[in-house]
Amino acid sequence: MAVRMKDVAQSLGVSIVTVSKALKNHPDIAKATRERVMAKIKEVNYRPNLMARSLVTGRSSLVGLIVPDLIHPFFSEIAKSLSSALRKKDFFLLVASSESDAVLEDAEIEHMLAHRLDALVVATTQSTSEKLRKVSENGPPLILLDRDFLDFRSNFLGSNDYKVGELATEHLIAIGRKKIAHIRGPENRVGKSRFEGYQHTLERHGVAIDPRYVIAPLGSVDVDGRRRGETAMKHLLSLKMRPDAVFCFNDMIASGAMMAALDAGLKIPRDLAVIGCGNYHYDELLRVPLSTIDQRIEPLGLRTAKMIFRLVEAEGPIRPQRVILEPELVVRESSRVVK
User: Where would I find the H helices in 97-150?
Assistant: First the structure.
């Protein structure tokens, strides 16, 4: 049978209120009393009933995070940064993966909401805003992460994805590349914005866009990006007029693309310059260290936590907030100037 707070109080000869305050490190409780309470709690393996506490306080201290893929470095690093920031204020993170499946995402949202969350963060795979709009209207505060909708005004945190495409393409032009390909991302606002940044930068420099150089990989770039990048690069290498540079939607695609190019005997960056997006932890450890656009993942997680605290502590409805972080170019060996 689970040990109750009442049992801890009776064994120490103190009130339930004293035990509760000791657990919260309340200043009313003497240091010696708190130490006795904490020692007893450890001895009897007492665990607070969070559900019961939430019924009294109206808060569960739980935040939900649903992402397309838990293995994807972008989302795993976001989860790590967010969890660390939440823990400092005694909030805890529940994480689930939708596997880039909108139906599974719906099921995960329903499961999360059953935990009486204080806030829900979703990097959605939905094609429309309809279901998330209902969550926003009837559930806890909702924050969209990385991808959002034009027709749904919501709390949102993400990167300037147009700037991602612009920075990457400007860099490749600056190092003298003329035939610049792009391995695209999904048909959502993120993928479209990065493509537009690439497209408009080429146009601004008077570089004609060859439609054969724009590849839309089949399937999910979140779940299976490396293999998608490898397949897309093999297609580009089969062209009679090969590109001399490629901007990849993310670093997972870029690592697969580089693998295919190296296996085909190309030298990077001499024959082919490659740049991705994300600045993941492994980029410097690849066979050829990968140039990338840094999305500033850790600050993104910290800003998400800050938004959660603002929403939870608000006494009433507040206007949705939109936070866009500016990306930064990180140049490594895969796109160095060849002398």
Answer: 102-113, 130-138
Q: Are strands 119-122 and 62-67 parallel, antiparallel or unpaired?
A: parallel
- Identify whether the C-beta of residue 137 lies closer than 8 Å to the C-beta of residue 113: no
pLDDT of residue 1: 59
Taking residues 95-113, report their average pLDDT.
92
Q: What is the mean pLDDT of residues 270-288?
A: 90
pLDDT of residue 318: 86
Main-chain dihedrals φ then ψ at residue 217, nearest 5 degrees: -65, 140
Q: How many residues does the chain have?
A: 339
**Confidence class of residue 110 from pLDDT cuts 50, 70 and 90?**
very high
Residue 315: other Cβ atoms inside 10 A:
5
Helix or strand holding residue 173 (H, E)? helix 161-174
Q: Is the pLDDT of residue 274 over 70?
A: yes
The span from the CA of 158 to the CA of 148, in Å, is 9
* CA torsion, ordered 199, 204, 205, 211, to nearest 10 deg: 30
Between β-strands 328-330 and 292-294, what pairing exists: parallel, antiparallel or unpaired?
A: antiparallel
* Half-sphere exposure in the Cβ direction for 262 (13 Å, CA): 15
What is the value of pTM for the model shown? 0.81
Find out if CATH 2.130.10.10 is the number for domain 161-295+329-335.
no
Residue 335: which pLDDT band, with cuts at 50, 70 and 90?
very high
226 vs 234: CA distance, rounded Å:
13
What is the 8-class DSSP label of residue 291? B
Answer CATH for 59-158+297-326 from 3.40.630.30, 3.40.50.2300, 1.10.3430.10, 3.30.70.1560: 3.40.50.2300
179, containing H or E segment: none
Render 238-258 in DSSP notation, one character per residue.
TSSS--SEEEESSHHHHHHHH
